[in-house]
Specification:
Blueprint (H helix, E strand, L loop, with lengths): L12 E5 L4 H12 L3 E5 L3 H8 L7 E3 L7 H15 L4 E4 L14 H29 L3 E5 L14 H19 L5 E7 L20 H14 L3 E4 L1 H11 L3 H11 L3
Parallel strand pairs: 1-2, 1-4, 2-3, 4-5, 5-6, 6-7
Helix pairs in contact: 1-6, 3-4, 4-5
Length: about 260
């Protein structure tokens, strides 16, 4: 049994959460260009308005919100229901990244990271699921990270939040496939964004946000569950996962020079 893809984005109702910059902005731009109706959400309303202006009248909605705020998410979803009657695709891209190692571990940063990167997507999914289950249709796409595959340096809170997203998506897929609702787990490698600009080390196979968006939309159209890229990097990290720990740690220490 294969899950459904999206043959055309024309007139698809899409909620992009995390649309103000980086991968989310690039996806929103591409979806608008493809003729989708796009609801744009993030905390920074001033960054959403120029993106919304790229669409035709009635094609976009601007719904500023914080993914850690239940009431704001609920209000955003209600606005979409009022305007369009529902959504066909939830694309959750929002996330926070603060480099953390054991010698500077900050519990407040860790809590905020988990709240935004794990509980944020869970809140959004909980909102859209009832209508999708009723319709036996719809798509849920969540951007995680290859940092969730295995432990990596400087990701003491970020990595665990993304590892949990992998498990969440896997379980969602298992539950929703028989119901006709498609789940897409998106695991980017290094993408040139405001978040990765914080890194003070060489990022292998770095790609642009526009290339990442192309990979994501292509995967959605094909109905792929596991959308990961760039393959030359994400495939290597997938291979590392199956190695014995001594070999895994030796390789990471040798090739990650930080």
């Amino acid at each position: 049994m294969k899950q459904k893809g999206i043959s055309s984005f024309l007139d698809q109702r899409v909620w992009v959460i995390g649309a103000s910059s980086g991968i989310g902005e690039a996806c929103a731009n591409a979806l608008i260009k493809a003729g989708a109706k796009v609801a744009l959400s993030s905390r920074r309303e001033e960054r959403l308005q120029p993106i919304a202006s790229l669409g035709n009248p009635g094609q976009t909605l601007v719904l500023p919100l914080d993914v850690t705020n239940d009431a704001q998410l609920k209000n955003g979803y209600q606005s979409i229901l009022s305007a369009w009657g529902g959504i066909d695709l939830l694309l959750f891209v929002s996330g926070v990244y603060v480099p953390l190692r054991a010698d500077n571990f900050d519990m407040a940063v860790a809590k905020h990271t988990i709240d935004a990167n794990l509980l944020g997507p869970m809140r959004a999914v909980a909102l859209v699921l009832p209508e999708m289950l009723k319709a036996h249709a719809g798509h849920i796409a969540i951007v995680g990270s290859v940092a969730g595959y295995s432990g990596l340096p400087k990701a003491l809170a970020y990595g665990p939040s993304k590892a949990a997203i992998i498990n969440f998506c896997e379980t969602l897929y298992y539950d929703l496939l028989p119901q006709g609702v498609s789940v897409h787990m998106i695991s980017p490698g290094f993408v040139a964004t405001e978040a990765t600009a914080q890194n003070d080390f060489e990022m292998p196979a770095l790609i642009s946000a526009e290339e990442a968006a192309n990979q994501i939309l292509s995967g959605l159209q094909k109905g792929e569950f596991d959308i990961h890229f760039p393959k030359r990097f994400s495939g290597f990290l997938k291979f590392l996962r199956i190695l014995p720990y001594p070999m895994y740690f030796w390789i990471v220490r040798r090739f990650v020079k930080i």
